[in-house]
Amino acid sequence: MNWLTNFVRPKLRALVARKETAENLWLKCPKCEQMLFHRDLDAAQQVCSHCDHHLRIPPAGRFPHLFDEGIFERHALPKVQLDPLKFRDQKRYTDRLKEAQAKNGAGSEAMAVASGKMGGHAAVIAVSDFGFMGGSMGMAVGECLLLAANLAVERKAPMIVFPASGGARMQEGILSLMQLARTSIAVSRVKEAGLPYIVVLTDPTTGGVTASFAMLGDIHVAEPGALIGFSGQRVIQDTIRETLPPGFQSAEYQFDHGMVDTIVHRHAMRETLIRITSLLMKRPAQAAAA
Fold first, then answer.
1. Any idea which architecture 56-280 has in CATH?
2. Taking residues 227-252, what's their average pLDDT?
3. What are the start-end ranges of the H helices in the chain?
């Protein structure tokens, strides 16, 4: 028994651990299906080196590449009532929240807010996390947008939002739909203060998010290939009973039809945002620090 416990079991565990580690080192590109080394992918800001496909990136991976020298303050999320409707489908809503927070970190939600210097000037940035329940917009996301707006007004800084969402969070029902109005009010506060509100549309931006704060920007930037729309393509086709054109709802299609002002590669996003905010704030642009 000692031989099995002390020798065989550790050997088996070591073999399994090595196999799991090797598999976790690589990720297949969803577009070209090339295998990508995680470390190289992180260094490239989740952009495929073979086909230039922009993979989804969480707030923790995006913030360091936007602020000067990667220095920023991440703000604590406002507290909201959990499961106000006592909702349950196949699982309890509270269980889904616990699973999402276990995956993304304690206290996490579908949006994160950070502030710092960008091009030598103050900026407030809110980034959606599609990995948290599909980036769905509930009361917490509404509070995050209000927090970001208040910070921007207080610091006289531009507000930049990176939405990535499947839409409103069904588990919060009408309370989720109310966030369409609340986030629109948050945006109006920034604009009434004479400050820029810039939206960077990422993959995917759909549903109630598109119907509210994501389409209220002074400038609408998009990442290449991002899905941008309200209803899904199949729903639209079934409704109008017509075949939709190729590339419908892609960032490139939206740009061609005037819904997007510019499409910017993720590697050039920081410099572009510095230039845009400098123009809107009527101040000279400083050289982008690494």
1. Alpha-Beta Complex (3.90)
2. 92
3. 2-3, 9-24, 38-43, 59-62, 93-104, 139-155, 173-192, 207-210, 233-240, 251-256, 269-280
